[in-house]
Model the fold of this input.
Amino acid sequence: MEVFNIKGIFVKDILNELAAQFKTSLTENLFEYKLELPKSLGEGFIQGINFPNGVGLLQFKGKFNKQIVFNFTSKKVHPLKFFYCLEGSLIHSIKPDGERRKIQQYQSAIISSYYHFGHIYKFPIDEYFNFQVVEIDRKAFREHINYKLEDIPYYFYKLFADVEGVREVFYESNYTLHLAQVIKEIEEFDKDNLVRVNFLGAKALEALSLMLTQYEDDLKENNQQRILRKSEFEIVNDVENYIDQHLMNRND
Done:
C-alpha cells in the first residue's frame, strides 16, 4: 500500500503536491489543473479548478494497479464536499482509526470533517473509478452570497454556516437522474479556455443545487419523496429490457 500525504485543501495545492510525489508534471489552463497518473501507479488523471466564490470542482478518473491512499492532513478547515460516484467505488474516513464508509456507483455523499481531522480516500486495486467532487470553501462562499444564511432552512444552514468545521457530516444517498445528466455534461464538455471555465463554474453550481434538492427530498418520509434516483431508473430499465427480451423470445 502506498500512502500520499497531502497538506493542501485547494485544487492547485493538492495537485501540485501529488505531482511532486508522483514525480510527474502538472498542466494548467486558466486555473484548471490536470495531473496524469504515472504508469507506475496505473492509468487515468485527476483534474480540477477553484472559483472565487468558494466553489471547487475535482474529478478522479482511472485505475490504480496497487493499493493507493490519499491522506489529506491539513489542520485547517476542509471544504464541504459533495461526492458523485459515476463508476467504481471509494472508501472514505476522516482519520486512520475512524469509521470507513464506502461510496459506490450511483451514490452521492455530503461530507464534512472536524477541523482538526482531514479526509482519507482509499482506492481499490485494479478497479476503474470515476467520481466528481464539488467542494465548498464555506467562508469564501458565505462572503460571496447576497443573502443571510440565517434566512435559509436550518438543515441547509447547518451545512453552510459551519465555517469553523465543528460538525462532522456524512450523508449518503443515490443521486438523481437530473444530477446524473449534469455530471455527464461536465465530463463530456470538450471546449477550452474561457468557455470551459464559465461552463464548469455554472455546472458546479447546478450540481450543488440539485444535490441540495435531493438532500431536502431525502429528509421527507418515504411516501412523500418525489425524486427518482439514477439507481432506481437503472433497475426499472433492466426490468423493462428483461420483459421485452422475453416477449420477443415468446413471439419467436
